[in-house]
Amino acid sequence: MADKENKVLSFDKKQRHERKEPENIEYCSFCKRPNTEVPKMVKGPDVNICSECTLIAVQYLILQDGVLSKEAQKILDLFWGMKK
Known about the structure:
Layout: E1 41-44, E2 47-50, H1 51-65, H2 70-80
Antiparallel strand pairs: 1-2
């Protein structure tokens, strides 16, 4: 038969764990969301950009100009696995 003491869990001061905020929180310089709320964050000198703002910026630049340089097109093709 199991010991009744093993079925009871007590929390004394030594066992309690206070909830800690994650360290190294960075905020996107554009949308102001923390790195805990976005998939990825790119950190630069005094500026950060989250992956979602990066996608918006790239889409804007491609749609605005409509034409990419040959080098940029090669990179996009490699990234998306397209071959021309």
